Fold L-dopachrome isomerase.
Amino acid sequence: MPTLNLFTNVPVDAVIASDILRDATKAVAKIIGKPESYVMILLNGRVPIAFGGTEEPAAYGELVSIGGLDPSVNGKLSSTIAEILQTKLYIDSSRFYIKFYDAQRSFFGFNGSTF
């Protein structure tokens, strides 16, 4: 159930969005060690964002997972997602924050119940 919610002030067209969703899904699944079928990625473009006092391309992400996160994994996720954003949207890695949440199973609902 890893879920990555990405926000950026860059406009994202459908083709680029599809590429980012595919690449981020594969990366999150591989790095965390969960099946791709469990991974959800949300991509929000054209969100008003100021970073460091400017509106240059920037992004913010939040990744929630039930287990699988630790400092080493988080570092790999941060650099990999930053690389995807740099390659696809030209967002410099110095203009990207990501927050990690390691959640308890009972705090997530799925299929009419909790995990």
